[in-house]
Amino acid sequence: MRAFYKTGLIVIALFAFLQASAQKVVGFKDEHIGYMGRIAYQADAAKVFWSGSYMLINFRGTEASVTLKDERGDNYFNIIIDGKVIVLHPDAQKRTYQLAKGLAKGPHTLMIFKRTEWADGTTLFYGFQFNDGAELLPLPPAKKRKIEFYGDSITSGYGVEDFDGGNNSYLPPYKNNYITYAALTARHFDAQYSCISKSGIGITVGYTDMTMPELYDRLDPNDPNSRWDFAKYAPDVVVVNLFQNDASMMRQADRPQFKARFGDQQPSQEFIIETYRKFIQSIRSKYPNAQIICALGDMDACKESLPWRGYVEKAVSRMKDNAITAHFFAYKNTPGHPSVEEQQAMADDLIKYITNTVKW
């Protein structure tokens, strides 16, 4: 196994750990493994797509490994063992990676958290391996609070760890959903966390071929016929942070994505407002008891001089639902995507808003 350092974290990459000693093998269907996120299952593995999806297990032992196969070798995962984070970069071959060795005797918690986006590929999770004699422990009780986010690159964590001016933001190593405002907010409230996001996506148009109303109800984001069962996860709070890419595309009418949607004609304000309203209303139909926060920011779409705040406010007003509210982040006024510090500032802002407005 080869390890190197990236953004202050240990990254395990390329070479798998092949354990010669006896192992306790725990398959992906084992009841001691907890899953969070929209995860599909095939005969021999779980299929992990979305940013922020994770697998969790508690055990008593001294060694831990995981068996994975990535679609293209582009994905990165945070491995959190007893609160300490390392980064795992699995390749496109089925391999077993050692995550810990020489752990202190006693109980341990292990989480495998997807940093990168579904567009970076699907990862197959086959299960865990522990030292012979290790004991599997019960999962913790399910968290009482649940939160779900719908967003774009801001919510995904695009470029959040690109500390060199944004030139490498598109590369998978610099994405990290774990330190986005979304994940930080969920951890602050000790809430279950679901994240449905895609860099470049919009409500009416974006830098992708699909819009969020076309994507939001999929289990497998790559399969237009795949449908998520919304009864499996009923969040108390839903945060929708979209419109940044719509705002950008309205200034780039020569792009093929714009032309495919609108031709040479700018969409009307009424079309934009109503498309947004209908999407929020579709979320409401799935979650009749949730508090829905229609957020915007912290990139330039949330500038007060632009119309996008007004579009959100008008859509919210039309729904006449006291449990659907608008909330705007402060415009960050810096180049590129939100940095670590800017994501934290967004989290602080959202945490304060939820604390003051949501009873859960």
Q: Which stretches are poorly predicted, pLDDT < 50 over at least 5 residues?
A: 1-10
Fraction in helix: 10-25%
What is the succession of H and E elements?
EEEEEEEEEEEEEEEHHEHEHHHEHEH
Tally the beta strands: 19
Radius of gyration: 21 Å
CATH class of the largest domain: Alpha Beta
Provide mean pLDDT, rounded: 94
Query: What form results from the Cα inertia axes?
Result: globular
* Main pleated-sheet profile: 8 strands, mixed
Q: Give the termini separation.
A: 45 Å
CATH topology of the largest domain: Rossmann fold
Overall CATH architecture of the largest domain: 3-Layer(aba) Sandwich
How many distinct folded domains?
Answer: 2
Which structural class is indicated by helix and strand composition? alpha+beta
DSSP summary: helix tally: 8
GO molecular function, one term: carboxylic ester hydrolase activity
Signal peptide: 1-22
Domain Carbohydrate esterase 2 N-terminal: 35-140
Keywords: Signal
Q: How does this model look, in words?
A:
- Helix 2 crosses helix 8 and helix 6 (269-286) packs across helix 7.
- This protein has helices spanning 153-156, 181-188, 212-215, 244-249, 256-262, 269-286, 308-319, 340-357, and strands spanning 2-6, 9-13, 23-27, 34-36, 39-41, 46-48, 54-60, 64-70, 77-81, 84-89, 95-100, 107-114, 123-131, 135-137, 145-151, 191-197, 237-241, 291-296, 324-328.
- The chain starts with a strand and ends with a helix.
- The longest helix is centred in the C-terminal third of the chain and has 18 residues, at 269-286.
- It is an alpha+beta fold and 360 residues long.
- The strands form three sheets. Strands 1, 2, 4, 7, 9, 10, 12 and 14 form an eight-stranded mixed sheet that branches. Strands 3, 5, 6, 8, 11 and 13 form a six-stranded antiparallel sheet that branches. Strands 16-15-17-18-19 form a five-stranded parallel sheet, with helices on both faces.
- It folds into two domains: 2-137, Jelly Rolls, CATH 2.60.120; 145-357, SGNH hydrolase (Rossmann fold).
- Keywords: Signal.
- Residues 149-314 form the SGNH hydrolase-type esterase domain.
- InterPro entries: CE2_N, CtCE2-like_dom, PCW_deacetylase/CE, SGNH_hydro, SGNH_hydro_sf.
